[in-house]
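In the previous chapter we treated chains in isolation. Here, by contrast, the input contains two separate entities that must be folded as one system, with a combined length of 562 residues.
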Amino acid sequence: MSAVAAKPTAGSAVDMTAMIIGLIILLLVIAATYFVFGSGLAFMALIGIIIGGVLIGFGVHFVPVGGAPAAMGQAPGIATGVAMLAAGAGLAGLFGGAWAAQTTDNLYVIVITGAVGGGLMMAITCMFVTFIYVFGMGIPCASGKVLKDPITGDTQPEFKSQGTEGHGLPFVSYVGGVIGGLFGGAGGTLIYLMLLDLYKEELPGMMNALPGQVLPIAVTLAGMFAIGMFLVNAVLAAYNITGTIEGPHDPKFKRFPRAIVASAVASAVCGIVAIMIVAL
Amino acid sequence: MTVKVEKIEGGIPHTTIMVAGLIASVVCIYLTYINVLTGTQLFSFFGGLGTVAALVWGSHTIKHLCSYGIGTGVPSAGMIAFGSGVIAMLFATKYGIAAPVVAVVLAAVIGLILGYVANNVLNMRIPVMIQSLVEMAIIGALVLMGYAAMMTGSFEFTSLTTGNVVILGLSLPSYQASFLGGALIATAFMLGAIAIQHPFNACLGPNWTQDRMLMLAAECGFLSMITAAVMSMPLIQMSAALVSLFVAIIGWFYTYSKYIELSQRDAAAWLDSKPIPEVEGQ
């Protein structure tokens, strides 16, 4: 088969059998965790990891990912791939959340700080991307997927160049980017926090050391697992939208139920391994 | 002269590269165990050679997967490889001498589930998707374990988490001066993730040649190994770190000059790449 002819056929169709098998894997992992570790901290950590993973997978659908066509002004969105955007927003969120986790124990404060970190990163990215599009490349911001911006009501087609799918960053994509950053940052921070609590509790006994001594290990392990799961969920969500999306108004956005199942399964599988490292 | 797109199917078969990469990588990581047997740390550089073998294999797997046009960009493949690999690798380090084998098996399981999710739940329907994600997860785990073995001289959880700090001539145990406690694993993660995705990203196109891409993969691997050797200096004996650095520089210089040679060979040819057969996004 020639490489060029073999395009992915990922459409918007939902494969019900595969979805059900996915949900069965998810329930099996949750049940296994419950029976092996009981309803204690480990079980709560797994639930938190799954929720965090779903938030990340869902959040990616809001982010206007333009890819290479956007860099040439032929499609709307930020001119890079999901892996880069998600890593940027997710790590900014993780830094925010990890900083908050040092100062307080309140779950909501920490998760919201992480969300603000991710959202802020996306807001700044979107703003400077728009500066470069408008003042550097000289293109107006116009969506190719909708006739009117759903938020401002501005008409789009008269600003769209012929032969393109739109260009620049319409207002709704900007808002979508910030919402995606908020979800991604919150999800990443939730995973980090859940694992950190578990490791802080279990590592001293496992390594025969004082809690203060093992804190660097707990932070690194939780951080590395959070980054790993963040990237896995972000790339799976990227596969779901086949690379590019304009934002919440894009028809591809309606594919998100698949990504939620996929993220939940992937997070559960990765999560149980991350829990077993201390609890087994 | 015209070159068909099918030309990229030529060269060494993927299965050969996969088997060779897997065996070479696992054997090299196990060779660092000579450290424990002989009581030195001089054999740590084998961990770095293991990462080079795994990265060469990984760049070909990425080529195999991305030639189907997954639409998300080549770097995303490197990211998912290490995202799933780091989880398997950290868990496997608990199993002492069996760690590399446990890492391979566990990574294969994680990769299998991720591949099923991507291929069936997300409806990607790419023939090589599941196999590629299994390979990617194994590669991610082996590369990280190779760096761990190279920087600490061992691949066991205790030695990854415990280091020594010398204060006024006294050697004190410290959790902070270690591969995990000092978060050197985060740097290893990115060193590997960038080295694995760069070769195909740089060499793709109508004049892609297998030997050139694999040479670039080896070059990227040795370049990362130089950095890893420098980072190993606070963790292992200076003599062992210098041996690693020496091996890495020699390897890098050889692969770099070979890569430039191959680039010049390929650049001299004129290729009719033909117009794009179909419009993107339809």
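Residues 74-279 of chain A form one domain. DSSP finds eight helices and two strands in chain A. Compare these points with the single-chain example from earlier in the chapter.
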